[in-house]
Design brief:
The protein has 6 helices and 2 strands, in the order H-H-H-E-H-E-H-H. By secondary structure, it is mostly helical. It has 2 domains: 1-33, no CATH class; 40-113, no CATH class. The chain has a two-stranded parallel sheet with strand order 1-2.
């Protein structure tokens, strides 16, 4: 990272801002932004996906959301774990020869009424 910062490319050194804050914003607001806090607001179709190499916290949040929606609706939304993927590659591969989730997403969208 230090090399990149020395090459006239604007950057903030990684240690300047804690990891959680860089990705999620201020820690004080993380809980309020959680989808679990908003599932009673309205019912919308949802497809839950998470990757095998997502951080454990992300995987737990996906499964917790799935469980909460199953209990709320007395039926479960579609959910898929993408094996061999991480938090970024789960969407970057759409439109490539890797069809890990493409067919599932198409079926979900086509099933919306």
């Amino acid at each position: 990272m230090g090399d990149r910062c020395q090459r006239k490319i604007p950057c903030i050194p990684r240690d300047a801002v804690p990891v959680v804050e860089r990705f999620h914003g201020a820690p004080a607001g993380i809980a309020e932004r959680s989808p679990l806090r908003h599932i009673t607001a309205r019912v919308i179709p949802i497809f839950i996906a998470f990757a095998e190499y997502d951080p454990p916290r992300y995987q737990l949040e996906a499964v917790s959301l799935f469980k909460a929606l199953c209990e709320r609706d007395n039926r479960c939304p579609p959910m898929k774990q993408l094996l061999g993927h991480n938090h970024l590659t789960e969407v970057y591969h759409i439109g490539t020869s890797d069809e890990s989730i493409s067919a599932d997403l198409l079926a979900f969208v086509r099933g919306l009424k």
